[in-house]
Amino acid sequence: MSFDLVFFGGTGDLTWRKLMPALFQAFRHGKLPPGGRILSVARDEQSDEKYRSWLKDRFQDVVDAKRPSDEEFERFAQLVHYRRMDLSQPEDYLKLKKWLEERGADTAVLYLATSPHLFPMICEQLGASGLNGPHIRVVLEKPLGHDLQSAQEINRVVRSVFSETQAFRIDHYLGKPSVQNLMALRFGNALFEPLWRRESIANIQITLAEDLGVGTRGDFYDRTGALRDMIQNHALQLLTMVAMEPPSRNDADAIRDEKLKVLRSLKPFTEESVARDVIRGQYRKGTAGGKAVPGYLEEAKVPADSKTETFVTLRTEVENWRWAGVPFYLRTGKRLAARDAQIVVNFRPTPHSIFPGVNQPNKLVIKLQPEDGLELHLLAAKGSGQQEALSPVFLDLDFEKAFAENRVGAYERLLLDAIAGRLNLFVRSDEQEQAWRWVEPVLDAWERDNAASGGPRPYAAGTWGPAAASALVARDSFAWAEEQ
């Protein structure tokens, strides 16, 4: 299958840090379909050769695993092309169309790696120039909008130009191997499904923690915040994968129908429940990696009086028969104690223990980063005396070791799926809008609180956030995984 893959924003950070390295790895692994071309478009005036050289310099810092040799990069670079393009000029879209039609590839994937506020204009220009035929797909990078209204407007324009099957709304967490193995764990095995319900599970914790600060992205982050940047998309998508009912088949719409049901079943927020069940924080100076680091308000391009949250934790419930009464805790933040993304499923304790000492409940840990795997925590007898005492042990499945030869990264997987037209791991517009609908009461409550001189709670860099985050979980007589 021949394909053309076009990156709008071809000189931007996302393209050279994530997308091009992912394509290179697909090329290195022999997974990139033959007969493909990769085109970057941006406002700069440069040749293919100059762009390839520019890209090669950046690959030295961002390509995972072993660095490409000169010969290996040159073979990949022959697929890469560059064109100058002003995204506001209709004639430039017609030139792009001519370039694509010269060869007439089976599939053209147009990846919008630009600021989301440009999405409507780009899609309208694509439609006006005829770049929306059935063989064309458009990939939309998050964040898709700033609130429900802006998200709906983006989706309205996208739907006016492309069909839903042509629109690939990307959330790279869905491409992580551990998330795919969560689907396999639940729906490919009989072991866990009978236990995957309120009768056996006490609570579920989803943590997306970063040890870095905002770096050079202070202006972007201050307009966004942790709730929009991580909870509305990544964390909620992970929650739907954990809580969804078994789909009738391994089909994009069947899967996304079940995810949408979960989003619609989330307990809605009120002003009272926001105050009770949502904690926001903002990091202050502290220590990270053994070094002193500045607070958020001292970061470049951050206003000195900013009330943007860098940390959020919240408690919610899925109000249906399977999950009624089971708390779901979502947590994300910058400058936390560790870089750690994981889902922890805490099972209920045995109703009566016949063993002395510890009666620690079982738990399943789905590790997303920096490690990638599964841990099943159990209790086992030590075998050291007549009165058998139990000790915690765990079964550890490291996906990197188990499937080393076939491993692909999240963006690599999603780019290959976009080329192949597989929508299973992409977000449908109604899912995305429902997620915004659910978080909007929180955003509204914070806006009112900010106007009343409120704001996020401070926490020291290098910790796990405000103390209130632990109190939120302790209120239900539970604790975060690192505190157990």
From TrEMBL:
Any GO molecular function: glucose-6-phosphate dehydrogenase activity
Give start and end of each Glucose-6-phosphate dehydrogenase NAD-binding domain. Answer: 6-181
Annotated Glucose-6-phosphate dehydrogenase C-terminal domain residues: 183-480
Tell me what reaction this enzyme catalyses.
Answer: D-glucose 6-phosphate + NADP(+) = 6-phospho-D-glucono-1,5-lactone + NADPH + H(+)
Q: In which pathway does it act?
A: Carbohydrate degradation; pentose phosphate pathway; D-ribulose 5-phosphate from D-glucose 6-phosphate (oxidative stage): step 1/3
Q: Which InterPro entries match?
A: G6P_DH (IPR001282), G6P_DH_C (IPR022675), G6P_DH_NAD-bd (IPR022674), NAD(P)-bd_dom_sf (IPR036291)
What domain of life is recorded for the organism? Answer: Bacteria
Mind telling me which Gene3D superfamilies this protein's record contains?
A: Dihydrodipicolinate Reductase, domain 2 (3.30.360.10), NAD(P)-binding Rossmann-like Domain (3.40.50.720)
Q: List ligand-binding residues for NADP(+).
A: R43, D86, L87, K142
**One Pfam entry name:** G6PD_N
**EC number(s) in its UniProt entry?**
1.1.1.49
Q: Where does substrate bind?
A: H172, K176, E210, D229, K334
For this UniProt entry, which residues form the secretion signal?
Answer: none
List keywords of the entry alphabetically. Carbohydrate metabolism, Glucose metabolism, NADP, Oxidoreductase
Q: Name one GO biological process term.
A: glucose metabolic process
Location of the active site = H234
Query: Which cellular component terms (GO) are annotated to the entry?
Result: cytosol
Q: Which family does it belong to?
A: Belongs to the glucose-6-phosphate dehydrogenase family.
Return the HAMAP family for the record.
G6PD
Q: Report the protein's function.
A: Catalyzes the oxidation of glucose 6-phosphate to 6-phosphogluconolactone.
For this entry, the protein name equals Glucose-6-phosphate 1-dehydrogenase
Q: Which organism is it from?
A: Piscinibacter terrae
Q: Taxonomic lineage per UniProt?
A: Bacteria, Pseudomonadati, Pseudomonadota, Betaproteobacteria, Burkholderiales
Record gene name = zwf
